[in-house]
Amino acid sequence: MLKKFALLAVSTFAFTVNAYAADSLLDRINNKGTITVGTEGTYAPFTYHDASGKLTGYDVEVTRAVAEKLGVKVEFKETQWDAMLAGLKAGRFDLVANQVALTTPERQATFDKSEPYNWSGVMMVVRQDNNDIKDITDIKGRKAAQTLSSNYGELAVKMQAEIVPIDGMAQGLKLIEQKRADLTLNDNLALLDYLKKNPKSGLKIVWESPSEEKVGAGFVANKGNQEALAKISEAVIELRNDGTLKKIGEQFFGKDISVK
């Protein structure tokens, strides 16, 4: 009987803590308080420190814009990626803003996500003087610089390209510039970042995955925060409609990434 009582007490306490945690974010938003947001701070151009040491990046500036729209203050807690969702689950912060898409069933069972503030998908780049490759179907028999274990490499294999193995995206882009490969497939946001920082690379975008195949990243919270996330989603939509997200996207990527 004592053991049963102890288990019941623990369960009741856990329920109370979870209920409080779920309510507290909504209360802080409604009362114009401070929300805490977990982010890496080492993942440019999404979340990083600029030359002056200030925390910035696409996700960071979107978070600040949402906080301003909601009338709340935001406190960032920098955390390594591997520990970020565990920290959210443990209640170390209210939200995570770090390009999280919640694509796995495990994550979907534990966390909820707001309206996406950006979308990402597959993009293909070639040399600017290459006029033969214009679509994903054109890569059959072409040399594709890809990491073998990535989904981008798998797509290139599926489309019957000749794979030129690489260790990472930067190496693949160099091989294209050196005419040792014809193309590479990678994440559109990573490629947009590279092209913005290297305007004289001699590369161009020729294809992107269709909008229905793109994945959205948004603010992530523990289950039980649906009302708070609804308010956050409303702010994201307003910022998209008034052009704020477009402006932030152009600042970091040279393009609006808030729409599919």
TrEMBL record:
One of its GO terms (cellular component) is cell envelope. SMART domains: PBPb. Residues 1-21 form the signal peptide. Its main location: other. Residues 34-256 form the Solute-binding protein family 3/N-terminal domain. Gene3D superfamilies: Periplasmic binding protein-like II. InterPro entries: SBP_3_CS, Solute-binding_3/MltF_N. It is found in: Cell envelope. Pfam families: SBP_bac_3. Keywords: Signal. Belongs to the bacterial solute-binding protein 3 family. This is Amino acid ABC transporter substrate-binding protein. It comes from Pelistega ratti.
